[in-house]
Design goal:
The chain is mostly helical. 45% of the residues lie in helices and 8% in strands. Helix 4 crosses helix 6, helix 6 crosses helix 7 and helix 8 packs across helix 9.
């Protein structure tokens, strides 16, 4: 009788302990998912117009190639000496609209915490000014002729190699501009900052060819798109290929008629605009899409948008007499 009572009591204790552990485990799992993996839609203004969606809409690159927003935010403040001049990311030639917190082609999306990644607009947004002091006019789907892509890649590796890229320095600077709660502060200090540094340092190996002394710099407005996909996404072994080209305009893609023998890319290696867009987008993701269908839907939308997007009209008065002469 006593043994039976003791057994029942032990069973109740074990059940209570198991229930408590289950609740605590479930709570920790939820906190982990919420703080690191929950995906929130971007704010409505991002998709309010096709132009805004092209410039700031996510294509899913935040999952694998994203940089934590607050680290991205304070990099120019902590490492001003790593930039070619004043102005932070703008000194790299990034197109930046007044009133926007990020340059064109840079997306912000919450996946557990806010992350920054790129979209096709980073390489395909042109700008011009009628006078030196005028606010630039930005032209979607035009060539990003001012952007120094290779300098941006090197910057991210260089700051990660700097001893200042540590939790104490970065958290002190983040604390000046953001009021993170205690869970986020712990997450940034012990997980997000160390993991980000590790991932950025890994890029030095993936981008080894951009450090080769026998290769010239790409220059502003140029991009080695094929090697980016080859080395950064599929981790192919480095060879002697070198192919930076001028960033092209990508408007009015409907003009390309493959049935008439029209081809795309500098080498004419494709006749399908969809394949060119998807290859470029995969290069930005740096890995297989986290959500394949959402990625394909975004690529399809981009193809339709760029097919209909008309080139801009010449913005200045035309002397018709001279034009007809």
């Amino acid at each position: 009788m006593l043994e039976s009572h003791a057994a029942r009591r032990l069973a109740r204790i074990l059940l209570v302990v198991f229930s408590v552990l289950l609740i605590v485990g479930g709570l920790l799992a939820y906190i982990g998912w919420y703080r690191f993996f929950r995906e929130e839609p971007q704010p409505g203004w991002v998709t309010a117009t096709p132009e805004m969606r092209f410039k700031y809409g996510s294509i899913g690159a935040e999952w694998d190639a994203g940089i934590p927003y607050w680290i991205f935010y304070v990099i120019p403040r902590v490492f001003p000496d790593k930039f070619p001049g004043p102005g932070g990311y703008a000194s790299l030639g990034a197109a930046w609209e007044q009133g926007q917190e990020l340059p064109i082609g840079f997306t912000k999306k919450v996946i557990g915490f806010p992350r920054v990644a790129n979209t096709c607009a980073v390489c395909h947004t042109a700008s011009y000014r009628a006078s030196p002091d005028e606010v630039p006019t930005f032209v979607e789907a035009g060539p990003a002729h001012t952007l120094n892509v290779v300098a941006f890649f090197r910057l991210l590796v260089d700051v990660a190699k700097d001893p200042r890229f540590n939790a104490d320095v970065l958290m002190r600077e983040i604390g000046l501009v953001a009021d993170l709660d205690w869970i986020d502060r712990l997450a940034y200090r012990f997980l997000i900052i160390p993991i980000t540094r590790k991932r950025l340092l890994e890029r030095e190996r993936q981008f080894a060819w951009i450090y080769r002394k026998d290769f010239p710099d790409w220059g502003r407005g140029r991009d080695d798109a094929m090697n980016l996909t080859k080395y950064f996404m599929i981790n192919a072994p480095m060879d002697d290929t070198f192919g930076p080209t001028d960033m092209p305009s990508v408007w009015n893609l409907q003009k390309y008629k493959p049935e008439q023998g029209m081809f795309l890319n500098l080498a004419g290696d494709s006749h399908d605009a969809y394949s060119v867009i998807i290859d470029s987008a995969l290069g930005l993701l740096g890995a297989a899409p986290h959500n394949k269908q959402a990625f394909l839907d975004e690529v399809k939308w981009m193809q339709e948008y760029l097919s209909r997007k008309a080139p801009p009209k010449y913005p200045f008065p035309i002397d018709q007499a001279k034009a007809q002469a």
